[in-house]
């Protein structure tokens, strides 16, 4: 069986990244895209199951695995609240023929790309401008003005990483961005056939 490829997608909040990734996975099953299953030290929520949505570890287990260099990338979001991607889990999914999707923040995206090099395609979904991003975030009606200001400041910082990605997709028009993403991903998967 062909070993799966890797697709890294990062973007500032509100850029449409999740919409585009979910569309690719839902409308194009032929791409065999599967999310990488991350680890977290938080407790399961609702109907979440270990090994399905996440692998649930204690903070001590997480630290032990960090010490053993088992993570591709990880972050301590709050004290004792870790999220990360295990190298072995990615390999297991690839060996099963799955093309693994990483929906990660920009630093995680850059780190995963550095680790895998040409075996992974990294995409940066970019809003047309910070002003447009502000309009989208305000249009959602879910954030306070302070939260929107924080997100915009973070977005400006995150956009400085764009040049470290293989391709930048400007999401000015969602349909156009979806089709461009599909073309780039299909081209990457075709060109890598037969290589291990």
Task: Briefly characterize the structure.
The protein has 196 residues and is an alpha/beta fold. The chain contains 7 helices and 9 strands; from the N terminus they run βαβββαββαβαβααβα.
N-to-C SSE string, H for helix and E for strand: EHEEEHEEHEHEHHEH
Strand order of the largest sheet: 2-7-1-8-9
Total count of helical runs of at least 4 residues: 7
Which outline best applies? globular
Radius of gyration: 17 Å
Unreliable spans are: none
Helical proportion? 40-55%
Instruction: State the total count of DSSP E strands.
Output: 9
Amino-to-carboxy terminus distance: 11 Å
Taking all residues together, what is the mean pLDDT? Answer: 91
Strand content: 15-25%
Based on secondary structure, the structural category is: alpha/beta
What profile does the largest beta sheet have? Answer: 5 strands, parallel
Structure description:
Helix 5 (130-140) packs antiparallel against helix 6. The protein is built from seven helices and nine strands. The protein has a five-stranded parallel sheet with strand order 2-7-1-8-9, with helices on both faces. The chain has 196 residues and is of the alpha/beta class. Helices cover 43% and strands 22% of the residues. The radius of gyration is 17 Å and the shape is globular.
């Amino acid at each position: 069986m062909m070993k799966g490829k890797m697709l890294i997608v990062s973007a500032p909040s509100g850029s449409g990244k999740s919409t585009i990734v979910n569309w690719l996975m839902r409308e194009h099953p032929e791409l065999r895209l599967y999310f990488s299953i991350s680890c977290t030290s938080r407790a399961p929520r609702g109907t979440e199951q270990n090994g399905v949505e996440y692998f649930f570890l204690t903070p001590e287990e997480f630290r032990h695995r960090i010490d053993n260099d088992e993570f591709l990338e990880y972050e301590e979001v709050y004290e004792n609240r870790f999220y990360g991607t295990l190298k072995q889990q990615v390999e297991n999914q690839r060996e099963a023929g799955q093309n693994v999707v990483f929906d990660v923040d920009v630093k995680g995206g850059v780190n995963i790309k550095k680790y895998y090099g040409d075996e992974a395609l990294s995409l940066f979904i970019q809003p047309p401008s910070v002003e447009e991003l502000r309009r989208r975030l305000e249009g959602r009606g879910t954030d306070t003005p302070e939260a929107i200001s924080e997100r915009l400041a973070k977005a400006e910082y995150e956009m400085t990483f764009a040049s470290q990605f293989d391709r930048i997709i400007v999401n000015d028009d969602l349909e156009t961005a979806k089709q461009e993403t599909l073309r780039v991903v299909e081209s990457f998967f075709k060109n890598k056939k037969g290589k291990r």
